[in-house]
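The data layer described in this paper is built around a simple, fixed record for each protein. Such a record has a labelled line for the sequence and another for the backbone structure tokens. For reference, a complete record is included directly beneath this paragraph.
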Amino acid sequence: MPAHKVAFRQCAVPGCDTNAASSAGGKGSLCMKHYKRKMRHGEPTAGRVENGKVRDWILAHVAYQGDDCIMCPHGVQGRYRSSTLTGKKTTASRTMCTLAHGDPPSDDMDAAHSCGNGHLGCLNPKHLSWKTKSDNQNDRFLHGTDDAGEKSSRAKLSSAQVAFIRENPEGLSAARIARMLGVSDTHVLRIQKRKVRVHD
């Protein structure tokens, strides 16, 4: 019995029991079906949404005064065109923040969420404000929603897979491990030689 059982990452969408596709090409921790939906609609669980539905929902909620998080049911994590609101392709949270609080002081500022639920799609205008990328990242760290290490969408391997590569209890070649995990031989060798920091 090997010391470590290789754990292939499951699709990150709740209720989907399909293995995630290889992270090559930016698929991250999504299966192929949900990856294609994310590329097409901006959000892995979104279906086809008519262009005006998100716009109309935002306009109907821009004056919302409640303190609870509110979620648009039309794939708010994605990008969509709205020439009548902003004139350019942007995110729903940036559009809501612009309508509620005016244009950002500079184009490189983020529409930050005080509630910590931006990753879930909260669009309460009272929860949004313009912050620098650094301040927004600090908020994400405080909220526990940062994507450091294994949580990053750019992470190619789980912590268990990295441990398997480093210990290699079965004495497998780097090429064999790379094929098993869907990464390059070079990446496996660099992890084995600890030339890259992967989940430390």
In short: Residues 76-83, 149-153 have pLDDT under 50 and may be disordered.
